[in-house]
Amino acid sequence: MAIDNDGGVCVSAEIAAGIPPAAALFHSLADETRLRIVARLARGEARVVDLTTELGLAQSTVSKHLACLRDCHLVGYRAEGRQSFYSLTRPELMDLLGAAEHLLAATGHTVTLRPVRDNAGMALTPRQAEA
């Protein structure tokens, strides 16, 4: 359910209305907040409270965007007691973001969309990557 900034239309509705699935997928990733959430979840699972603290966002904002990413089948969750732990469901998403990094770099816009990893393959936090 990627939310359209203009009218609240979700990806499911866009596909039902005849929008090609590829366009709907890219639309779901076209929001900076959702990209930040995806980048954080690429480092490992997180609860809503973790995401709000780490990303400096309101709980309602994080929950809304997680619902969108869940509806797009890019994020899933597991319940543990009264808590939900969110994670990426499609590892191919990292390949897509890697391709976007390369394409943007080739056009003069260097960005980091995937987590930086250490020599052992462990994902680093942005602060650790800067050090």
UniProtKB/TrEMBL annotation:
<feature type="domain" description="HTH arsR-type">
    <location>
        <begin position="15"/>
        <end position="108"/>
    </location>
</feature>
<keyword id="KW-0238">DNA-binding</keyword>
<dbReference type="InterPro" id="IPR051081">
    <property type="entry name" value="HTH_MetalResp_TranReg"/>
</dbReference>
<protein>
    <submittedName>
        <fullName>Metalloregulator ArsR/SmtB family transcription factor</fullName>
    </submittedName>
</protein>
<dbReference type="InterPro" id="IPR001845">
    <property type="entry name" value="HTH_ArsR_DNA-bd_dom"/>
</dbReference>
<keyword id="KW-0804">Transcription</keyword>
<dbReference type="Pfam" id="PF01022">
    <property type="entry name" value="HTH_5"/>
</dbReference>
<dbReference type="InterPro" id="IPR036390">
    <property type="entry name" value="WH_DNA-bd_sf"/>
</dbReference>
<keyword id="KW-0805">Transcription regulation</keyword>
<dbReference type="InterPro" id="IPR036388">
    <property type="entry name" value="WH-like_DNA-bd_sf"/>
</dbReference>
<dbReference type="InterPro" id="IPR011991">
    <property type="entry name" value="ArsR-like_HTH"/>
</dbReference>
